[in-house]
């Protein structure tokens, strides 16, 4: 039960989040890899998951109407993974990462990741993510199965940011600015990989900094389609460059509940049934692609989850 004060707080949040839609975002990023218009092959995702007529009219974007139930679910979510990874009894990582180094200056990263639908129940969740970080400022993109966040068990696209003590998924608070007219930020991936099918469905995702504005952009598929951005003003340390990058899986289970599967739910052995992140890419502070040659593996619970690099 919510108190009267909490009810009023939620109503105020809803008023702010469900403002009348803006017809256009008057901003063209100066990104090295970005293309404003996606190719036909890269637009297959949006044609399958959005609408038969191609989505919203050009100049408008598909803003989800936030409900009180959405905000209540977000309040009931466990703390962000990066607040609780010191307790592997709750959240478990299976990742490849570039170790933190104060001399690192990364302007972005990318991956092609296979799409799966691990079985989760109750407050559990399981995800694959690309994460960039500096200090307490964090950006994540990937797919996620999370009944608490989405009220279903489907594999969905997600974005998440943490700026100091503030953190938020998707567009459940002010922060991420959606600009794509045909790619909802919590879209369902309908085509999911299955063990034994001889290959995997995958999606390609990038986070890239615009070195003119300082904004961080989420780019989708090999066409580098612009989905949206986080304004640099919301950050403290990511107003500059990142010094840490991670690729891989994360799973959460409440205390006393066995941990859920991650990825395909099968230990990787180097064949087509493996869940994977491939074509890992990193940008330097000039926006140029650099070699990913000094990664390390980190796994909280090697009895349940494994990583091959």
Automatic annotation (TrEMBL):
PROSITE patterns: NEPROSIN_PEP_CD
Lineage top rank: taxon: Eukaryota
InterPro entries xref list: Glutamic_endopeptidase, Neprosin
Domain Neprosin PEP catalytic: residue ranges: 86-309
Gene3D superfamilies according to UniProt: Outer-capsid protein sigma 3, large lobe (3.90.1320.10)
Pfam families found in the cross-reference section: Neprosin
PANTHER family per record: PROTEIN, PUTATIVE (DUF239)-RELATED, PROTEIN, PUTATIVE (DUF239)-RELATED-RELATED
Protein name: Neprosin PEP catalytic domain-containing protein
Organism in which the protein naturally occurs: Solanum verrucosum
Lineage: Eukaryota, Viridiplantae, Streptophyta, Embryophyta, Tracheophyta
């Amino acid at each position: 039960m919510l108190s009267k004060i909490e009810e009023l707080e939620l109503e105020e949040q809803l008023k702010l989040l469900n403002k009348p839609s803006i017809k256009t975002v008057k901003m063209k990023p100066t990104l090295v890899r970005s293309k404003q218009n996606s190719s036909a092959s890269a637009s297959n995702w949006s044609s399958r998951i959005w609408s038969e007529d191609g989505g919203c009219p050009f100049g408008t974007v598909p803003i989800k109407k936030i409900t009180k139930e959405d905000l209540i679910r977000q309040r009931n979510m466990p703390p962000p993974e990066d607040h609780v990874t010191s307790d592997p009894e709750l959240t478990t990582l299976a990742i490849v990462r570039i170790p933190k180094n104060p001399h690192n200056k990364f302007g972005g990263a990318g991956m092609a990741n296979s799409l799966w639908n691990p079985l989760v129940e109750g407050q559990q969740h399981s995800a694959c993510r690309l994460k960039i970080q500096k200090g307490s400022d964090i950006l994540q993109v990937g797919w996620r199965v999370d009944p608490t966040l989405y009220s279903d068990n489907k594999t969905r696209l997600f974005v998440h940011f943490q700026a100091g003590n503030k953190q938020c998924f998707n567009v459940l608070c002010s922060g991420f600015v959606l600009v794509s007219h045909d790619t909802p930020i919590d879209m369902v991936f309908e085509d999911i990989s299955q063990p034994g099918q001889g290959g995997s469905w995958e999606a390609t995702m990038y986070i890239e900094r615009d070195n003119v504005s300082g904004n961080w952009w989420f780019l989708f598929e090999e066409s580098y389609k612009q989905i949206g951005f986080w304004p640099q003003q919301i950050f403290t340390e990511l107003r500059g460059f990142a010094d840490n990058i991670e690729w891989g899986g994360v799973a959460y289970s409440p205390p006393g509940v066995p941990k859920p599967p991650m990825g395909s739910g099968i230990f990787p052995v180097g064949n087509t049934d493996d869940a994977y992140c491939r074509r890992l890419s990193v940008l330097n502070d000039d926006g140029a692609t650099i070699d990913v040659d000094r990664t390390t593996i980190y796994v909280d619970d090697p009895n349940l989850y494994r990583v091959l690099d």
